[in-house]
Design goal:
About 35% of the residues lie in helices and about 20% in strands. The chain is an alpha/beta fold. Strands 1-2-4-3-5-6-9-10 form an eight-stranded mixed sheet, sandwiched between helices. Helix 8 links the parallel strand 9 and strand 10.
Length: about 325
Amino acid sequence: MKEREIFFGSDGLRLAGMLRVPEQGRVFPAVLLVHGSLEQDRDGNLLVKRDGKPAFKKNFFLEIARRLCASGYAAFSWDRRGCGMSEGQAGDVFAQARDAKAALHALQSQEEIDPQRIAVLGQSAGVYTVCLLAREEPQVCSYILQGGLFRDYSEMMAFNYARVARYAEMCPENLAWVEENDLCSLIIGLNLSQIESAAREGKTEHDLVYKGRTWKFHHDPSCYLPENAPSRQFMHIEKPALIIHGEFDLNVPVEDATSLRDYLIKKGSQEVELAIIPGTDHSFQEAPADKELRLRERMSLESFHRPYSSAYFQVLEDFLRRAFK
């Protein structure tokens, strides 16, 4: 594939992205790749963990782009605000939606791209961003919704963090391991009710105390507002949609994919596909068969070292082949 860096503006900031196109051809259908919380740069990497330690580069968007280019499609992704070559500081989900809109317009204006054949792929929290984008930019030809949350935000918090606390409480060995590998999640899991109460009071920062040390937890209170509930955002998805979820997703329950499919069909969407990728996690990387090992790899992010599922890429390519006819 060929790569070309593109700069574009959003909210007065200069953001940087990478357009990747096949070696052969002149004009291509394209996929806009929208970040989740575990993807911060143009290649789909989490640059820094919550504890400040660097994360292993999983290159999720780069791997997707390679497969897309091999199939004759272009891909565009960018560095989030404050990451890589992009200016600014991390913004809320509405700022992310404005950035996605600006990225879409930048992609549409490239001479190598067919502006009538652009699909938008949202990963995890990026699914929410895509819904906000769809509200204002309905002209894209299709959507790919990967690992998206359908249930309320508070339920997602409990799903992710209460289990960490439960695991740590099982025995002293587990507690010591969690404190070493995912202390932030443990502290959140032990304080879920306090965090939610503070957020519902409109606070963006909350002090959490663990073993005599105070931690500052930052959160977005708007996530808890009824009008911002994830399930209420999918009303804007009108074009053909592919819903993909990993069988062993430990970030968003796999049942949310079925709930989303049922919702879109009920509201009248005619072209909705659902694919549960066997044996994969939230990023469609191969997950171990052992349940405890899966949990540990999720907490430590050692799962980032595992290979991506070929079945995931095949489902993605098959859908795009139909979408770009």
